[in-house]
Amino acid sequence: MADFDTHLSAQAANYAQLTPIDHLVRTAEVYGEHLAIVHGDLRQNWRDTFTRCKQLAAALRQLGISRNHTVAVLLPNTPAMVEAHFGIPMSGGVLCTLNIRLDVEAMIFCLRHGEAEILLADTEFAEEVKQIQAALPDLKIIQVNDALGPEVAAFADTDYESLLQSAEDLDNWVLPENEWDAIALNYTSGTTGDPKGVVYHHRGAMMNSISNIMDWDMSKFPVYLWTLPMFHCNGWCFPWTIAARAGVNVCLRRFDPRVCFRLIKEFGVTHYSAAPIVHSSLANAPDDLKQGIDHVVKGSIAGAAPPEAVLAAMEAMGFEITHVYGLTEVYGPATVCVQRDDWADMDISARAAMNARQGVRSNLQDGLSVRDPISMEEVPHDGATIGELMFRGNIVMKGYLKNPKATDEAFAGGWFHTGDLGVVHPDGYVQIKDRSKDIIISGGENISSIEVEDVIYKHPDVMNCAVVAVPHEKWGEVPFAFIELREGASLTDIQLRDYCREHLARFKVPKYFAFTDIPKTSTGKVQKFALRNQAKAWVEQIPEQ
Fold it and tell me: Which of 26, 436, 397 is nearest to 246 (CA)?
């Protein structure tokens, strides 16, 4: 047996720590004159972007930031947010992107829990910053005056541009000492208690940034529209992905279909990512907005699968939609519904059904499995046996900050437990049936809220829907459906109940319907915890049906 170890060790000449910072460095070297950021009148190339990121890193290091120091940002999708994804890690610090739609008390919790030392805050959040300053007087605030943001009185001693200009040594930036070093801290939504701090490492960020390229077959120089909040899983790692491909970041402070269609046509947007509600809004926009798009636009959708009507509308516009799935704990998307050639010959209904599945593991994710969470045995690939979706590999978080119990529970048995329940089809494609907490148990029978929602979504008068469990004296639980109708529709609960009876087993038909706005998180996910409370309160006030 040959000795492949002695005098064959890793060293400076043959081993480097993996980090997405290198995407920026290489792109600035090779494609420095290529456009990097578009925002209002701003047209910034990659060489200037690299310079500004070096300035940010050096300025932060002058303020004492180094390895494992947390720097938080409270920013919309602006140029400063793109630069923060590089400049803060280049200082050695850990980037904490705060959800801009959190209530201020939740923001304060995240800042305190993550031990943030500096906060970069857009002028849009001047009022929130005042409360943050009162609660955390030692936190240094940097005011970001975005060109398209509101003009307000100064609420900090230093603004972002002055901070960059204060940098004395542009070579004073660093690569990680170890690719396992933390690069980012992302807080979960905290719907059942305090948010949990999900820690990303440089290796995982690098891996997922490349996996995005491979999953989407993304060629060089993409034009990426920022419909997805960069505070959400670091924009699914796409700030780093776009740098790797020398693409264009088309910034967007807030989602507006009119603005999106204008930018798509003006800059030739090729890619965007979004929650289902964003795709639905684009699909249902006035026809005059959709005119003039003469190139293919690729969109990725996460969360609920694209309803048939939305998929058809997107195809009519020339949009190609890819269904992905993931969680904060796996850097955003970690599966992709790879579309097979023979699906193109199917009718729209059959194709929508195939695209509704979460699919297979992403290119650089080591493992995706559906298992019994107790025995850890993998379920058969029969499309019927339900288990819990689990991941393992490089695109999984380091763990939860300061929460070893939750980390150990999440990683039990050598897999990351998602809490999502699903099946594996004979072709190996995974499909979610429900969240473990969203399964409705009625008279001893399990009802998938997703199955019921899929049926309701197909009704032509329904724009959005969400189904939750509500307590019932006889059956234990029954389905309660919340419905948002299309403009001009006049669907009644009797009509919708009759429709459901045509497509569902009787015990799966919702017992109650409410036609109302459906509360959603900042990333477009339905807030089912809030709906469960609403449903319970609503049922308590109506006579038994």
Answer: 26
